[in-house]
Amino acid sequence: MHVGTSIQATTKDQLYAELAREAGALLSGEHDLVANAANFAALVWQHLPRISWCGFYFLQSDGDLLVGPFQGKPACVRIAIGRGVCGTAAETRTSQVVADVNEFPGHIACDPASRSEIVVPLLWQDGSLLGVWDVDSAEQGRFDDVDKAGMELLCRVFLGSLGS
Ligand code: SME
Q: What is the structure's pLDDT at 142?
């Protein structure tokens, strides 16, 4: 399998567009949550520069977010809704772009080297929450509005792959 080897983007917009195309191809034909989440995290990890962690937290029946497939160092296992960047994205159902995690009240430092972070809520079409997609960087201010739009596009491709 050679998925992802054809990505040759020159701009960030282009990189996300190509990643979205590759993710669509990689995940097509499979609807399993864990399988598609694992391959999605691996694809982003392979192609997105200057990131230190990427992965999923999925909402559990007890109301917590539980870590799912990811790439990078071992991470915090459970996060309560409303706590940290992930819990805030889940509670507010809006993407969180944090230029400096030290300035974010309640940030959960799984990796002390993390300096900036982006978290996108994963919402089904009926508005219910599946979980969040979280990407960290050791670089301050790594993520901007282009990353936010790009990550949201990627998350739509991921959710679409799961069927309804
Ligand atoms: N920093 C996150 C916790 C998850 S890790 O970054 C993998 C937060 O504050 O929610």
A: 98
Residue 108: how many other CB atoms lie within 10 Å: 17
Domain residue limits, the chain: 12-161
Considering only CA atoms, which residue is closest to atom 5 of ligand 1? 110
Task: Please give the average per-residue pLDDT across 3-25, as a whole number.
Answer: 87
Quick one: pLDDT at residue 2? 54
pLDDT tens digits, 139-152 = 999 999 999 999 99
Give distance in angstroms: CA of 37 to centre of ligand 1: 17
CA 68 to chain centre: 11
| pLDDT value at residue 4 | 55
Which CATH number fits the domain 12-161, given the four candidates 3.40.350.10, 3.30.70.360, 3.30.450.40, 2.40.30.110? Answer: 3.30.450.40
In order of 15, 29, 107, the CA distances from 11 in angstroms are 6, 29, 30
Q: Distance (Å, rounded) from C-alpha 36 to C-alpha 116?
A: 25
Residue 109 Cα to ligand 1 midpoint, Å, equals 6
Spell out which residues line ligand 1, taking CB within 6 angstroms. Answer: 53, 75-76, 79, 84-87, 107-108, 110, 114, 117, 134, 136
